[in-house]
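We emphasize that the prediction below concerns an isolated chain of 163 residues; any contacts that depend on oligomerization or on bound cofactors are therefore not represented. The input was used exactly as deposited, without trimming of termini.
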Amino acid sequence: MNTPVSWMTQVEKYLAYRRHHGFKLSIDATQLQSFARFADEVGPADHLTVALAIAWARSSQRPNPLTWARRIDVLRGFARFCLRDDPATEMPPRGLFGPAHRRLVPHIYQVPKLGGQQAVYLANALQAYKTGARSHPTMRAIAASLSEQDMADLAAYYSTVQN
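Result of the prediction step, given as a token string:
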């Protein structure tokens, strides 16, 4: 790749190589073709550079670091492919714009907070759990076995406890 390249040609060559090895690459193909159009419009380049990768990543219609990081992540595989024939290819660093994938916060099972609530509220809540007007599997199981007096006693106690 010592002479100016058509980036679309290079991308198609990369996609054909990867598909030959069993990869579908539907999303990656769309992203890489977008890169090729961008790079071909910018003008001829001797090799892939980090500056070109950054410019393309930031040209997204969704201007946020997560999108930019995902674009760089897709481009890294293509850059590795280009490195085979062109040692001047620059590998865009992983994490250039932060993580490429957002990790969802896991749901942590919690029981309702009882301490410090007003006794009347707690008694009404326990009654609602018992009748099914409020839904929480653990609280419903506990409240099902309580008498009115048990609920009043628990409500009085938990109203004095601070979390």
